[in-house]
Amino acid sequence: MKVLILGANGMLGPWVSKLLKKDYEIIETDLAKIDSNINFYKIDISNLNEVLKISQNVDAIINLSVYRNNRDLAFNVNTLGTYNMMRAAEEHKIPRIINTGPHFVLAGPSFETYDFNINSDIPNQPGVNIYALTKSLGNEICKIFADNNDFIYVQTLLFYHLYSKELILGGSDKKFDKLRESLNPFSVTWEDAAVAIKLALEIELEKLDSRAETYFISEDLPHRKFMNSKAKNKLGWIPSNKLKPLWSYDE
Amino acid sequence: MIVNIMNILITTASEISSEKLILFLIKNKKYNIKCTELSVFKESYNKDLDVVFNNLQDSKNINLLIDKSDTLIHFAKSKFITDNNSLNIYLRNTYNLLFSAIQKGVKKIIFISDLDIFNQYPDNYIINENWQPKPSTKILDLSSYLSEFIVKEYARSFPVKVINLRIPKFFEQENLNNKDEIYITFDDYFKIISHAIEQNTYRDYEVIHAHSNVSNLKFSLNKMNKFLSLDSEKVNLHEIFEEPIYGEEK
Predict the structure, then answer these.
(1) Phi, psi torsion values for A52, nearest 5 degrees
(2) Are residues A211 and A153 in contact, defined by beta-carbon separation less than 8 angstroms?
(3) Judging by beta carbons within 10 Å of its beta carbon (0-12, 13-18, 19+), is residue A3 exposed, middle or buried?
(4) Is A63 left (phi over 0), alpha (psi -120 to 50) or beta?
(5) Three-state DSSP class for A248?
(6) What is the DSSP-derived secondary structure letter of residue B68?
(7) Cross-chain Cβ contact B149/A72 below 8 Å
(8) Max Cα distance, chain A (Å)
(9) What is the C-alpha to C-alpha distance for residues B22 and B8, in angstroms, rounded to an integer?
């Protein structure tokens, strides 16, 4: 199986490439190359022609691209980029699309502020945070293309805080003891996140309940804020649950 | 007698439908109409209109544009939208415009969207405002659906009244191919927009389907008719907006 990874050189990409490269022919794309790349192409996801060209003859696309703060770039990468990916899926008849994003693609302030036991089959309520909203627009675009093309299956995996095995939060320079009392109730390790993506790549598409499915990829956490049961039941994902030292003194 | 002047900002001023709306509303002395358009249309606008051109990219300029506006009338579509890139820019402009509208205390947003986002449903269905849109992947359908999505999130997040008015194409005799084709006349359009400007809805986000073709059975006009009969000064808004959707309790 030939797998195209968009946004391969962000924080999650190298974990995914490392896990997939043994079993799959992967094409890594991003705006700049890094040392670990094995089959790299410089691709700007906001350029439709580039995305169409690199997508020829691939069996699956994994979209890990993301831009968080700048309004222009957030729309270019998170919304237009996802549209371009779906156009490529439509044009080249690519059946398996794995999209990613933060949990507030679905569960923005209107859910997160008030509720518990939030599952991944809720309607999108991202609020107006630019990162959440532009990613949520991308998610809507995925659903519309799946609805209009009966060969496209989109699986969206949502993450938020990602930790190394040393319990260092991605993108943070805070020490363990500073992180300990502020664990976000939507957290997972990089390794577990990559495993979930591999499982989404391997599940038989006909076994999905619909052609647009969404999963929360978060460890078993005691907050009971977000439910990961769909990822477990459908994908067979088993989190390694290594974050306990961040929420309990009983190690 | 003191007359309260209402400041209204209308976007996409060079669209024929916006031009006509502006020229209609401008006759009402209670309204102070400001209209805007993207700078790319600077050479092709109606010179009878006083248009403020703005790329809707820079917050400072948009804040100046929208300052002191009470009501914003914005559209899901523009002739600017021709491909994936212009769609993306238009969505971003909508986000920017609403961001400034909230910052500047705009009280009401009237958003003009399109019934085309239900085109994927069969014509023998009876669709009302409670149906989930089912857009195609055409650029303009995506623009309507995704722009609505942005507007809805602003309505959910901030204390602003939003009326999302979904309409079909405008009636022009030469464009009407058969009697079942759905359309709205400019007179009906002006009537419902005037009503939307003047009346307050019960909920912060209200969707209304409007058209003029009574022989078209696909889109129910119940809510539009209730809305047009509404005088929010005199009636219980809760009753008007809660009851017509689900029918009367037995």
Answers:
(1) -60, -40
(2) yes
(3) buried
(4) beta
(5) coil
(6) T
(7) no
(8) 54
(9) 10
Q: Is residue B178 part of a domain?
A: yes
Q: Identify residue A158 by its one-letter amino acid code.
A: L
Letter string b/e over residues A51-74, b meaning 16 or more CB atoms within 10 A of that residue's CB: beebbeebebbbbbbbbbeebeeb
CATH class of A2-162+187-239: alpha beta
Q: How many domains does chain B have?
A: 1
Look at B84 and A128 and tell me if their CB atoms are within 8 Å. no
CATH number, domain with residue B176:
3.40.50.720
Rounded to a whole number, what is the distance in Å from the CA of B89 to chain A's nearest CA?
A: 8
Residues 6+ apart with CB under 8 A from B37: B11, B12, B13, B14, B45, B51, B53, B54
CB contact under 8 A, B137 and A110: no
Kindly list the domain boundaries of chain A, sorted by start residue: 2-162+187-239
Which residue carries 């916006």 as its tokens?
Answer: B18
Domain for residue B172, yes or no?
yes
| B48-86 residue pLDDT tens | 888 999 999 888 899 999 999 999 999 999 999 999 999
The string of pLDDT tens digits covering residues A108-147 is 999 999 999 999 999 999 999 999 999 999 999 999 999 9
Residue A221: closest CA among A117, A112, A100: A117
